[in-house]
Amino acid sequence: MEFSYWGKAGTGDQWHNLTRHCVEVAAVARAILDGDSLLRQRLMSLSPLSEDATLQLLLHFACIHDLGKFSAGFQHKRPDLAEVNSIPSPRESRHHTALGLSCWNVHGLWQKIRCPNPRALEPLAVAAFCHHGEPLEGTGLDRISLKRMFGKCIDDALSFHDESASFFIKDDFPSSLRDESLQPLSWLSAGLLIISDWIGSSEIWFEHDPASVSIEGYWAEALSKAHGAVLEARILPAQTAAEKGFRELFTYLPEEAEPSPLQQAVVDLPGQKGPELLILEDLTGGGKTEAAVLAAHRAMHSGKAAGLFAGLPTMATANAIYGRMAETYRSLFEDGDASLVLAHGGRALNDDYLDSIVPMDDPGRVDKEDGRAVCFSWFADNKKKALLAPCGAGTIDQALLGVLSSRHQALRLLGLSRSFLVVDEVHAYDSFTGSLLANLLTFHAAMGGSAILLSATLPKSERSKMINAWRRGRELAHVECKDAEVKHEGFPLMTRMSDNEVDELGLESTRRLNIPVSCVNSEEDMFAALIAARESGACSCWIRNTVADALSARTRLVEELGIAREDVLFFHARFTGSDRGRIERDVLKRFGKGGTPEQRAGKILIATQVVEQSLDLDFDLLLSDLAPMELMIQRAGRCHRHQERKTRPEGYKNPLFMVLGPEPVDKPEEDWYANLFPVGRYVYRRPALLWRTARILQDKGRINLPEDARELVEGAYNEAAYGSPEALEEQEFKAQGEDCAGRSQAGLVALRFEEGYRRMNDYWDRDTLVPTRLGEASRQLRLIRSENGKLRLWADSGGGKVSIKDCMRSEVRVSCRKVDSAPAGARESELDELIQNMPDKARWSTCLILEKDGDIWSGRAMNAEGDEVEVRYGKDMGLEIVD
Asked: CA nearest 658: which of 610, 601, 697?
């Protein structure tokens, strides 16, 4: 039968026949499954049907995914093409996804494929027809309304469906198929349909052709094109390298390097027979990252993974891991051009990553001998594709979006399903994000994946939570797991959970952290220590809990105590992308392993939490505001971190960790913490936990690891050991209530594996609006300089053209409470002209004009209460809001 309908349209009179497009998308799905044995295995393990019957269903739904485009309403999106094909204009219409799903339901199309239970196929139908990334929950359309919207085209739509069913469906379906039987399969089915449609819609591989085809007559040709397309897109997994030893995997390490006990424990694990969860706990700098790569190599070599994705808590830590992975990831693959992708919102600011991107049409640019990372542009042009790459590093948010009501989340799940999932700094997440992480582990386990969690200090309760989340996922996959009970108190520790057993293995540590702790109650003691260290030629760092406190300390050091501005470095999260990148590179160069005595001498770093995770920094003297115990341990790891460093100034050859906090008296007042930290109390809201932390640090007088690791962490979190002062209980209960609310909120936005791909809540929207972290609402400020009478971006690179990179490099995030909007000004028309030249038209940013005021730039803004505030910015100061 001839079907003269357009499915894709180009400029002018160029258009692509709908039947061709539908067959091509089905062919792409088949080509992916032909070339990706692991993904095929994942899909088949989620289906109660035979492999042949499952494949038949997947291909049929792929072929009819655009059934709604037969409607007169869709065809009249191009009136010129509708007129050519003599299709009358309808009186009303709906989106073609809703029309396709309605057609399936209203006309009972499941009858054509001999399924005795129509509801059983519903999850796959939703996955197919809602391939634009968001499932529908009913459409409210009946046969009469469909007739109005399709017009005479309805008969052709039904005929095409029947042709597809006749071609693909060969088997009858068992009567035992229940309503929920195919719900697990629908998650990966939705991801497969999305990626197949994206590739099948590309003119690169499928040129426009208006001629109609029969499915049987075109299938072989379409399949040949599809196999070529998936190869060129590099969507298929890269070939795993042969089994390698420690030195072969980590060629960048010194020749004499040997595996640490933790790394050796991973090497010594038996061959992986099924999905596994590993939890590694060891000191900062103990080689956990390399151990994770070893675990990924083991899973890949056992055929249980085809690559890896590492999720980190921040963009800075993700950048750091990306740099380390760039040195070793190629050793995991036989292919020298396997892609390594960086996945987070600020990746356009990472020059190393940008330099690694290779155009799809120029693979010859890959130098397989230079050892640098490579990322083909197809993976780099959209963060949603990033998790499909063979190897990746990014913020954990990119993976968490796979289990949230975010558009195209199924595509992220598809990529993760064949990757070994690495989650670092697990202790760093609040109750909301931690609950989402547990849900991610449940999904990953249910789909047959494997994962490893890395932490320096993980309370037993959190370890149990993650293990139970994994166990639940395996049970959802109809696997009977052994009971998982956390018992071992050792540290370092490796916990391994497979379907058959739970192993806890205490390990020796090659690193020790034995740092005297000096608890002080006055800022004056902190400033005196910084001055003394500077005069002795030592380098020091004070980690403050808020930007406001950090700014206050730096201002006093420079303006009151007379220390040269260039000797007081300042690092926090409230810098623009361009300035933060510059400062981060300087901090790593000066205080990292390569830092020389001359670079370090007398330097002071005032920083916030940005330095406490995954940044390889070393200071002669470390100072910190009081924070929860696990973070104090993390921060302490930056003091004399490089134990091999021999050139430390006199008086600083032994480490010292100074902690500023209120004295942990037996009966503290209600405002015990708030008196010393009036702003910091809003960051760390559990005063009783902070009181126990301070009490333990004062009593012990040192952080001695690994011996005291469990005692320190469990003691801070266990009220039975140190008590909970009565005056702090109300705030503690309130904070615990907020934690419960966070977990409840996570339950509202999180998807549930057992319910399949369907619309579960009202949160489905763009990724930017789906929360992966709780906290104050924030706003992205895009800073605009008024210079020589003209407006230009803060990070304008010149040349007259405004790039998206320049836009991102000019942005800084701030609380909506502090800055909610920019006031209208006399230069509004000039600003509008600049905005129109921006690639994104500043849709998700607030542009703020700043005027030069000495070394500082300042402007006016409105806070959430409608009051005008002054906004000040300096390239070495960052953003300050003055009420």
From this structure: 697
